[in-house]
Design brief:
Blueprint lengths: L6 H6 L8 H15 L3 E3 H8 L3 H14 L2 E4 L2 E4 L4 H11 L1 H16 L2 E8 L2 E8 L14 E3 L5 H6 L4 H13 L18 H14 L2 E4 L6 E9 L6 E10 L5 H25 L14 H10 L5 H10 L9 E2 H8 L3 H14 L2 E5 L2 E4 L8 H4 L4 H16 L2 E7 L5 E8 L14 E3 L4 H8 L22 H14 L2 E4 L6 E9 L5 E10 L5 H26 L9
């Protein structure tokens, strides 16, 4: 079997005797959820995987306990924490961390979308996207897999294919000429002759660049240049500029933007050449310790071999791209025999490869485990289940808000209301003055005083703080104590609490709050009981946000 088999090739080949069957089934469930866009009913999973319903239930229960899926009624939904598997691959690869800033700067300079992609068998898989916000914008996501023959990077990677690689490509193309096994692209009704891709690869070898002239779909054009590893001279990834024929023809893209793309690639290669060797990040030792306790807690509903197997993928990361069996076992806390069986399983599935005997690396196929649909997750989507859990816990409405661009108002981006005769009537999209709201004060308090935009301080109730110096002292108290309590300043009878939600840099990017009639909770009750509940929920949202935002930009609204 090839060193990096596809899912179909793995399924068609003999399963190694030492492979972990529950792990194979768990990966199948995650891939089906990914291909379905992140959500499937348990019945649909049963049909798609061919597994017994009881097996699907146990697998999804285990994945839910790990935080990798969320069970919402009869549906299984991919959860942001699952992105830690793909993050392990991207961190070990290092290319996004080293080259993303160059790609983003080029996208800003050209006002066009810029992509970074790596080879994945006879396809290409995206590892970074810098997109433009337009009505007709690039819809590809990090982790999406495209057939090499319908892309600009594909001919570049094909210049390094072996005879066996070409044989595999021809077999795959003959079996699936319309590319229906690539859900990220529309099927092609009129496949080009195989000789056309061979010709494009030969031309790419001569020119050092390649074009995609509407091969993905009508109107989409792209030009790509290889980024070579200075140590080996081989292609590390390909950088592409993608546009629409309403802005550039393929020829115009080549003539106008290729020189600037080449200049950016030269700078990328210099970055790779001068980048210091990564210091190995602390190994996440003891990852498997909790699985025994979980098994005792949940009984047969918890598939321990699946949970332990998945921890193996997170043993990899920055400075830990190539690991031996001993290193994997040490990082995870697994017995060598258990780690070995998991690695054998992953190698069979194409998620792990051995570049040298005894040394294991993750392959781009790890990104097929939920990354594409989750890479477009917004903060309101991340927060929604946590808001619902908090509302159920405290029996009050909960909300998430951000500062508007002007900075003097907050805008609600997510909300879960409780059923009460008397409730706070606010909907997503509502704007309120930041200075008189608990969420606004939390967000203003995080800013340097010179960067705060307060707007006119009007008395909305007799209690509203309108003196700038008093408000400044109040914001300093909010910053110090980590929460804001606003008592009947926005509206008489309305009492609200808020805490910040921080991104990976520690910046408050949103605020989480609850609001209620002043008669329902005393001020001491708010501080002693509601603030801790808000803080715990904010911590949970932040944990998901930090995983989601490691290699992607998470929209705040």
């Amino acid at each position: 079997m090839p060193a990096n088999p596809t899912l179909k090739e793995a399924a068609a080949s003999a399963v190694p005797d030492e492979a972990v069957t529950p792990l194979i089934r768990g990966i199948a469930v995650l891939r089906q959820l990914t291909e379905a866009g992140g959500t499937l009913s348990l019945s649909a999973l049963e049909r798609a995987t061919g597994l017994a319903r009881s097996t699907v239930d146990r697998i999804t229960s285990t994945l839910a306990h790990m935080g990798y899926v969320r069970l919402d009624g009869r549906d299984a939904v991919l959860a942001p924490r699952l992105m830690e598997l793909g993050n392990a691959y991207l961190a070990a690869l290092r290319l996004p961390a080293l080259l993303a800033a160059r790609a983003d700067a080029l996208a800003d300079e050209l006002d066009e979308s810029v992509s970074l992609a790596v080879a994945d068998g006879d396809g290409i898989r995206f590892i970074h996207q810098a997109t433009r916000r337009r009505a007709m914008s690039l819809s590809f996501r990090i982790g999406d897999l495209l057939p090499a023959e319908r892309t600009a990077p594909g001919p570049l990677f094909a210049t390094e294919w072996t005879a066996e690689d070409w044989k595999r490509w021809r077999a795959r193309r003959a079996a699936d000429p319309q590319n229906r096994d690539f859900p990220a692209v529309p099927p092609t009704e009129q496949p080009l002759p195989a000789e056309e891709f061979t010709r494009r690869s030969t031309r790419a070898r001569q020119d050092g660049w390649a074009l995609d002239d509407q091969l993905i779909e009508p109107g989409l054009v792209a030009v790509a240049v290889p980024v070579r590893d200075p140590r080996t001279g081989r292609i590390a990834c390909a950088a592409s500029v993608v546009s629409h024929t309403s802005r550039h023809t393929a020829t115009g893209l080549r003539d106008t933007l290729l020189p600037r793309l080449r200049a950016a690639v030269t700078a990328m290669e210099e970055d790779l050449r001068t980048a210091p060797r990564p210091e190995p990040a602390p190994a996440p030792s003891g990852l498997a310790t909790w699985t025994g306790a979980s098994k005792q807690e949940l009984g047969r509903e918890f598939v321990e071999s699946l949970a332990r197997g998945l921890t193996v993928l997170t043993a990899f990361g920055e400075g830990r791209a190539d690991l031996t069996l001993t290193e994997v076992a040490k990082a995870t806390g697994l017995a060598r025999a258990t780690a070995r069986r998991a690695l054998i399983t992953y190698e069979h599935l194409g998620l792990v490869a051995q570049p040298r005997p005894g040394t294991f690396t993750l392959t781009p196929q790890v990104l097929s485990l939920g990354y594409p649909p989750l890479s477009r997750t917004s903060l309101p989507h991340i927060a929604a289940p946590h808001l619902a859990a908090l509302a159920e816990r405290i029996h009050e409405s909960t909300s998430l808000a951000v500062l508007t661009a002007a900075g003097d108002e907050i805008q609600y981006t997510a909300r879960v209301a409780t059923a009460r005769v008397m409730s706070v009537n606010i909907t997503v999209g509502t704007r309120l003055p930041a200075y008189a709201t608990s969420m606004g004060r939390v967000l203003l308090a995080d800013l340097p005083p010179a960067d705060r935009t307060l707007g006119p301080l009007r008395p909305l109730t007799p209690r509203t703080i309108t003196d700038p110096q008093t408000l400044a002292r109040t914001l300093e108290e909010v910053r110090h104590q980590g929460y804001a309590l606003v008592d009947e300043e926005l509206e008489e009878g309305l009492r609200s609490l808020a805490v910040p939600v921080r991104d990976r840099t520690g910046r408050a990017v949103a605020a989480l709050n609850t609001a209620m009639h002043a008669s329902r909770h005393t001020l001491p009750e708010c501080v002693d009981h509601l603030v801790p509940a808000l803080r715990e929920t904010a911590d949970a949202i932040e944990a998901d946000l930090h995983v989601s935002g490691q290699f992607t930009r998470v929209p705040l609204s």
